[in-house]
Batch of 3 targets.
Target 1
Amino acid sequence: MPANLCITPDLGKEDMDPEVSTRMIILSSKANVSESEVVNFLHMLNLPLTIKWTCYGAMISGKDKYVKQAIKELRKLDPYGIFTKERGFAPGDPRRCRGHRYGPREGFHQMEKEFRILDYVGEALRNPREVEIEKKEPVSVDYFKEALESSLKEESNNSSDENKSEDDKE
């Protein structure tokens, strides 16, 4: 297997350009569009972007203004099923590309966890409601000291009981 499977192995200029951003487009399991529809739609926008089809949706990279424009148009297809996330590396970057690393990239398992809750996030966006967050008071220093002393005393008693039972065995 060739060691260099990335699209653009020399990312020097684009990688250092502060105007270039990369976003992952992640589809929830209940999304009304497929990965192929997302990629085709992005191509039809005819924007100067690098578009990569992925197992979770797509990845786009280019000048920030074009990336934001593409995301804005894309989210119109399914505002509750299409999510985006900033990615610090361009598609095919040898530091993150699976083709170079031969295995899942860092962050994949985090994204896998996030993917599991996207349906709930979409539902909350679709049906917003008022919630109240109960602010809990911090534990007082006196209570903390009391709990600590009690715990230490209990631990001390348990260890002395164990020592007594060992002495009884001898």
Target 2
Amino acid sequence: MQRMMGLVRRCIEDYRMIEPGDRIAVGVSGGKDSLTLLTLLAALREYVPYSYDLTAITIDMGLGGMDFSPVARLCERLGVPYSRVETEIGPIIFEHRKENNPCSLCAKMRRGALNQALLEQGFSKVALGHHYDDAVETFLMSLLFEGRIGCFEPVTYLDRTGVTQIRPMLYLTEGMVRTFAAEHDLPVVHNPCPADKHTKRQEIKELVAVLSKTYPDLKARVFGAMQRLPLPQWGVTPHPRGSQKQLHQHDGCKAGQAEKADDAGRGRGDGDIEPGQGREQIDKAEQDCAAERVDAQLPEPAQRRGQQPHEQKHGGDGKCNG
């Protein structure tokens, strides 16, 4: 878990996502991504020299067949307050409107419900579970389907609501999240959405998988390009612990190499790794990167060191174009 927390902490610092005293809500859908984010942010509170409050909020779409009681028990174990907001988003989209392309409207309605819940509970910052693969896929979706170069931003300020969205898992690949969720037996809730696995995002995910067999560094190069260009708000903020710009370079990145190993362990590699050898390759990748990023290792918990929380040196309100 410490390796994952180290990458999340680095992402938070690179993009100034959390300030001392922040009250942060985690949008918890019940999927592996949001549950992993919740678990990591809850654990990270013991390791950073500043304090922040967490709560977890679920927007229940009213689709039926979704039991969130295991999520509530997880939150209780983590010491994080939990609330579930019941809505009729699912029936409105699939029964009343019968949308042929429901994802866009669904996303807008869920965001609206979540933002409303945040404001009612007095929160102005929400953590979302987008990861490394999500960023690459969103970039390619914008390019191929909309003819524009763009992606969601690591930190997004919504000026109409005053809510700031942060995405602390951008340095974690989907394979890393999948493995973490399985190893920690997170209570993933089955998604009964009729459109699940039949979306434009799924098309891009499959396209990337095919292209990666020929161009194994594809995702690392796309992600690195977004930081180096950079896209709006994707430029990495310099800080005392060093720059993160090398994290996803194709020739030495833990996420990229671990991703290849994860694919190989599932029989999807590029032929350099035998199926079943994924864990060994992940360990090798971590060793190769350790020398370059020693500072990514977490210190002892602040409480055990007797340190008092203190203000971060950097300021900034994380504002982005809303």
Target 3
Amino acid sequence: MRTRTALSIFVAPLPHHGQTFTPQRTKIEVAAPPLGIFSLPLQQRTEVALRPHVLNEQLSPQHNLTGMRIDIISVVPEMLDGFLNTSILARAQKKGLVEIHVHNLRDYTTDKHRRVDDYPYGGFAGMVMQCQPIDDCIAALKAERDYDEVIFTSPDGEKFDQPMANSLSMKGNLIILCGHYKGIDYRIREHLITKEVSIGDFVLTGGELAAACMTDAIVRIIPGAIGDEQSALSDSFQDHLLAAPVYTRPADYKGWKVPDVLLSGHDAKIHEWEMAQSLERTKRLRPDLLEK
């Protein structure tokens, strides 16, 4: 039998135009199957972002509620430029909720040809990212501010999921080092990296796509990043459940009809339908989530 789960959330009234607000932490308890996101009334429109953590977890000392900072270190920064400067990520930066900076690792190498890799000891295949440029880049960033985590994107890291995104969104400053080639000199992982993260059991050419996925998942749940925070609360994997189906107009398209309950205007019945659908889809498609 699953135990009750402690959740902590930020809540603040929607500000009027030109006003600012300070989110306040509120604690709730929910019973399994988890009900956290569904225990909020559908008509409630508040600045809410879900943070499932232990009850006594505190905000990072670097978190100032006016914005976080993410520094991404990459060998091919041009891969990230377009993604990080469009849609929700662009709006969050314009609002001052987050700063995202991409650093070209080649700018920190002492090699006259701007090389950042070399052959591995032991005669293994592939090329390995060297210590010096990575060390110098991280040192330069740390000389300007403190960082909560120095993350390395790696296929053998801890699997990235929604709870990790929620947790990282409460941090103040993050460094994400994108792996490339065969990997990085292991001494960097031993001495400088605080967290190794994988987005799945597959190998990419580089860690840039992983860094982009992580950044998007982290930033979108910062209060104010999206227009309707209720949308973030009802996303799949919040509370270890898949989201219920969603529909829009017209109510009847080629005979494909929207469920009647969604047209009823009855909040309680819609709430029950949403929860039932979410549980049914989770049991059918991702039963492993119910074991967490």
